[in-house]
Amino acid sequence: MGGKSSEATAILPGPVHICGRVVILVILFALIAVPCLIFYNDAYPLQFSRLSCHSDPSDSSPTPSNNEQMKLERVLKAATMKDNTVILTTLNEAWAAPNSILDLFLESFKTGENTKHLLTHLVIIALDQKAYERCLQLHPHCYALNVEGVDFTVEAYFMSEDYLKMVWSKIDIQRSVLEMGYNFLFTDADIVWFKEPFNRFYEDTDLQISCDNYLLNDSYSLANNPNSGFKYVKSNNRTKQFYKYWYDSRIRYPNQHDQAVLVKLIKLSDPFIKEIALKIRFLSTLYFGGLCEPSKDMNQVCTMHANCCFGLESKIHDLNLVLDDWRHYKSLSLSDKSSYKPTWRSQDCRKKFDYHHIPKKMEHERKKD
């Protein structure tokens, strides 16, 4: 009996040996798993960033986050042109509601010249579930994106915390689209389209961007004031690096929106832009106008942007006027069109924009009147 007991004790491992083996296995697992996790996060930034995507309402079971990358890929693939280019826009519930910005945006494609077919290449990125549901009612290519901890169902007021999160989420998903190998033309939804714009873009350029003010008639001039609401970007190593740098720069420039940071990077000639040899050009307001600086030629204009405008109601009001001006132009005879001088009407936007830009002393005096 005593001999057998001693023999059994010698064969069976003690608790100390078992614990030691468990610790070794845990360490080995960590050494393998952590590098894999880092690699996956780098390859698929959307999964582990601030952005998480809604699943399709028809999906009853939870969908792993890596499937969201596949959903975005499917939507992009369905909408892409032959050269792997897609048109992107983003909106929330306030902009997607009936008789709001989305309706005007889509209508402009239908009333423009040679623009209706471009709707087949448009991907609408919805920032909340209500916007996604409305998109599905109107358009075939919709993608639902949620920014965690933020409610975008209501209008995000300029420079509010939610506004900043919203505009930076746009840059993040654009970066992901570039990483997937797609060129894109991004357009804010408060831009109405009149003519097919692609023949107005420059050939050998990585990033071309619209302007609030186009100065010196020079597409290279740093005096131009870029507006990130309309830009054509080719997917290559330079643009991928730049978008990552641009997005990360929100940390260096806190409490500033994407366009303000972009202006700093470009106008201050950030060394990184030279380092990666990024080719940037600015788009003329003759072709890509806005309420800041309207196009002076309806025979040439491709788009009009409700920039220099505060408030959703003001944008809707003035974009309706702009579309009416376009319809009037289209009703003219060819001879009248050739000599037509546009008189774009902008009422609410201009009044409110001027009011917000009154110096504080004058604004105080005005309030007393």
Automatic annotation (TrEMBL):
Entries under InterPro entries matching the protein: At1g28695/At4g15970-like, Nucl-diP-sugar_transferase
State the name under which the record lists this protein: Nucleotide-diphospho-sugar transferase domain-containing protein
- Which PANTHER family does the annotation name? EXPRESSED PROTEIN-RELATED, GLYCOSYLTRANSFERASE
Highest taxon above the source species = Eukaryota
Report keywords, A-Z. Answer: Membrane, Transmembrane, Transmembrane helix
TM annotation in the entry: 22-40
Describe the location of the Nucleotide-diphospho-sugar transferase domain by residue ranges: 117-319
